[in-house]
Amino acid sequence: MEHPTWQITILTFALSLSVLIGIFYNRWLSGRGRSLFIRRIPGLSALDEAVGRATEMGRPVLFVPGIGSLDIVSLQALAILSHVTRIAARYGSRVIVPSADSIVFTLAEEVSREAYTAEDAADHYDPEDVRYLSDNQFAFASGVVGILNREKVASACYFGSFFAESLILAETGHQVGAIQVAGTPSTTQIPFFLAACDYTIIGDEFFAASAYLSREPTLLGSLVGQDVAKGIIIALVIAGTAIATVFGVQSGVLKGLLGL
Amino acid sequence: MDFILYLGKWLASPRHGLALWLLIAGGLALGVAIFLLLRATPGRYRKLIVMAVTFLAGLFYIAEFFWSGTIFGVENFLSPAVQPLGDVIMVVGSFTLLLGVVNLVAIHAKAIRAVRPGWHNSLAFFIAMVAIMAAGLIPYLQEQSGQKGSQSWTAVYQILFNGMLAPLGATMFSLVAFYIVSASYRAFRIRSGEATLMMLAAFLVMLGMVPIGIYLTHWLPETGALSNLRLERITQWILTGPNAAAQRAIAFGIAVGGLAMALRIWLSLEKGSFFDKQ
Lengths: 260, 278
Prior knowledge:
The complex is a heterodimer of chains A (260) and B (278). Chain A has helices at residues 6-31, 42-57, 72-91, 102-118, 137-151, 166-175, 190-196, 209-214, 217-247, 252-258, and strands spanning 61-64, 95-99, 130-132, 155-159, 179-184, 199-202. The relative contact order of chain A is 0.16. Chain A has a six-stranded parallel beta sheet with strand order 3-2-1-4-5-6, with helices on both faces. Chain A folds into two domains: 6-37 and 217-258, no CATH class; 42-213, Rossmann fold (3-Layer(aba) Sandwich). Chain A is of the alpha/beta class and 260 residues long. Chain B has nine helices and two strands. The longest helix of chain B has 37 residues, at 151-187. Chain B has a domain at 188-266. In chain B, helix 4 (79-113) packs across helix 5 and helix 5 (119-144) packs across helix 6 (151-187). Chain B has helices at 2-12, 17-40, 43-66, 79-113, 119-144, 151-187, 193-207, 211-216, 231-266, and strands spanning 70-71, 74-75. Classes of the chains: A alpha/beta (260), B mainly alpha (278). The interface between A and B is large, with 80 and 62 residues.
């Protein structure tokens, strides 16, 4: 197995430590009755609007938790699904969740059921709304396109890992007139979502979703830690640029520091 | 330590016939026993068990990854267990595939029973599923039982897979080309300063990548300050300068965000969403 160099190990521990310090610092702050400011993320604020629109039109909401397998990205997508489904359950709306991965499907089923139960709307939960379609990328895409057209969804949310099918889904959603909110850490797909969706959350905003939606002090604290970690990375980028400028890119100093 | 290594090797060693079936049955019985035990455990304790397992599993992978060489004279004894553990996770995950198929069958069977609009699509699903399963399984089973695989079944499989599924996938993929045009038309409409800037950048990049664009500024010198105004140079600068910088900034943000999320899940701090619901 491959193991990291000591430089990478130190950096990872420093970043992890800054996140943990942020978490415990904010918990301490909230214990004293103070809270931190979190800037507005329009894409996440639009989720309520999207569900509200679907309720007014009497049409369902579509939530696609990406086509990736169970990982950090899918877990975050499921956390957002939980929020969306709870709002929909409160309003008595349907949320259709097509899935391309059987593990994510099983979890999505559980999350949806729990959300309806938590809002005392277990009777509104329809097991057929959480659907396993196919693990084949384009078979899944065609399945979702079919749902978008047949069910005439009023709002579509795309959160998770996406690949070439992202534009097929988002453009079809646009054609059926759905309000669309997307969020993905797949950098190659962000431009497609930006072009075709009404709201797109990009980069680390995706991982800030559960903190933003729940306002839980622990999660907000991790955002503080993330900002500190980004500060460390920015400092390293500036230091690296300065060293490369002074000593040259091929110099032994830079290679020694990077462990190359 | 030696026991863990021995257990790992024993589990990973190949088996055939009765020993294989006994191992599968033993694994299933163990899985069912753990499931029943978890079901019988009160919610509060069950949550603690899940938190402990999550923490230990995370600790295993972290320790294995960062344990390079020897630490205090102890070699990394975790690495040999990575592969068997990965296999276990894959086997557990494969059970959920069955749940996925059950979901598909239930939805489409209901559509046919109730003669819902489009019920014939559900019928097509059953025909396709049975056909491709038969075409894939029958030659495999024939081969396993020592018979010569039937060529006709292999041909049916080829027709279904290479002749139907692959072209259907390619057809869906080809739609992307048309969707790119319609999406970029909307995105590049000049509505604001940002949209104008994006349109201008896209125009220059596209022009700098086609022969006509390169021809437009070919009269400029190839060296010196004026050469930077050649379209292919501008294109290159946009791609490797502002574009690459923005992409890397997003990538850094994603990496840090992913790390924070992983830490929250590992330490069971991810609250406020479905993680803390019982």
